[in-house]
Amino acid sequence: MALRGGIGEARRKRRRAGAFRVAVCIDTRDAPGRERLVGAYRYALERGWYLFLVRGDDAAACHQMAGLHVDGAILYDREPGLHRALRRLGAVTVEASARNLDLDNAAVFADDQKIARMAADHLIASGFEHFAYCGMAHSHQSLTRGEHFCDLITRRGFSATAFSGVWPDGEIALPPLVRWLRGIPRPAGILASDDRVAERVLAACRWLGLKVPDEIGVLGTSNDELMCELTHPRLSSVALPTSELGRRAAELLERILIGRPPRRPFLTLAPLEVIARASTDRTSAKDPKIAAAIEFIRANARRPIGTDQLADSVGIPRRTLERRFAKDTGQTIHQFLVEIRLRHAKQFLRHSDAPLNEVARYCGYLATSAFTRMFSASAGCHPETYRRQYRGR
Question: Looking at the domain that runs over 8-110+243-271, which CATH code has it been given?
Answer without folding.
Answer: 3.40.50.2300
